[in-house]
Amino acid sequence: MRTKRELFLRKVEKGPGCWLWKGSVNAHGYGNFTLNKKYVAAHRGAYLLLVGEIPVDIYVLHRCDNRRCVNPDHLFLGTQKDNIQDAISKKRFKWNLKGSPLSRETAYQIKECLLKGIPQLEIAKTFKIARTTVSAINTGQNWKDV
Question: Which domains does the chain carry?
């Protein structure tokens, strides 16, 4: 019988840099993997299976910014704030020029923060937006589909 690690690695194409996930991918471009009867993002699965435990409320971030990459050398742990600051420093934090100051990805990140119970004021300061914008996302007035 194959181990979870072996099953995982069967869905990976190892390159000289990134290791690309060849299994299913979600709408945001991240790989999906079933681990202990639960879906996890493939890069989180890679970290768990190839590196070690992930503390509660900690994210697995990519040095390479390739959402399908599962190379443990390209992954590191950080908080949601670290993730946002990483996105800003790498110019991945984009502004939507069609009337909304937020991209879909940013709205999605804000929704994730809200679901984790991060206070709206802290989210607003982190994203440099008004707290009312965060509230509108929380209540579904804006970005209902994220």
Answer: 4-78 (no CATH), 92-139 (1.10.10)
Token reading at 49: 């299976």
Overall pTM surpassing 0.70 (yes/no): no
| Tokens at 72, concatenated | 């443990």
Quote the CA–CA distance of 12 and 70 in Å, as a whole number. Answer: 8
* Strand extents, DSSP E, 1-146: 12-14, 19-21, 32-35, 38-41, 59-62, 75-78
How many CA atoms does the CB half-sphere of 95 hold within 13 Å? 6
> Read out DSSP for 69-99?
B--GGGEEEE-HHHHHHHHHHTT-----SSS
3-state DSSP call for residue 113? helix
Which tokens hold the place of 124?
A: 């607003």
Residue with tokens 């119970």: 117
**CA 146 distance to own-chain centroid:** 14
* pLDDT at residue 88 greater than cutoff 80: no
For 64-78, the pLDDT digits (tens) are 989 999 999 999 999
Q: Across the chain, what does the average pLDDT equal? A: 87
pLDDT above 50 for 111: yes
